[in-house]
Amino acid sequence: MRNWIKCRSPPGEEFLEAAIHRRLAEFFGIERNVAAASGAVFLIGLGEELWKKFLPKYLESLGANVAVVGLFGTSEDFLDALYQYPGGWLADHWGRRRAFLTFLVAALAGYLINLFSPSWPFLFLGLAFAMAWQSMASPAIFATIGDALPRERRAMGFTVQSMLKRIPMVVSPLLGGAMIGALGLQAGIRTGLLITIIFVAITIPVLRAINVPLAARDSVKLRGVWNSFHSTLKRLLVSDIAIRTCEGMADIFVVLYVTNITGVTIPRYGILVAVQLATAILVYLPSAKMADRLGRKPFVIATFLCFAFFPVAVILAPNFKWLVCAFIVGGLREIGEPSRKAMIVDLAQHNLRARTVGLYYLVRSLSITPASAIGGLLWRIRPQTPFVVAGIFGIVGTLLFAATVEEK
Question: 340 with 240: CB under 8 angstroms?
Answer without folding.
Answer: yes
